[in-house]
Amino acid sequence: MTVHTQIKILHPDAKGRVTLGAIAKGISSYRMTQDGQGRLVLEPFVEIPERERWLYNNREALASVKQGIADAEAGRLHSLGDFSQYLKDDDE
To answer: How many domains does the chain have?
Structure first.
């Protein structure tokens, strides 16, 4: 994992708010901690839909999905045909 350090001076507005701008792209929320010296640390979070939470709570299923993604990226895949015949009208 590559660690990048980016320094940016942020100026609070009259209400004490700061804008992160492009740094926050793709991030839905942050957890903020403050140490004994008053330093603030923002940890980015990306929220997931409730219906997808099961995947992140099931290590075996998540590992299988990650392996499938890695296989696809490496070109290790083959078509199993068209499965559209199994769709129901209420499927997304």
So the answer is: 1
Q: What is the pTM of this model?
A: 0.46
Strands (E), the chain: 29-34, 40-45
How far is the CA of 49 from the CAs of 20, 46, 52, 73, 79, in angstroms? 24, 10, 5, 25, 29
63-85 confidence digits (pLDDT tens)? 999 999 999 999 998 888 999 88
Q: How far apart are CA 33 and CA 41, in angstroms?
A: 5
Domain assignment present for residue 56? The answer is yes
**How many other CB atoms are found less than 10 A from the CB of residue 58?**
12
- Helices and strands of the chain, counted as H and E runs: 2, 2
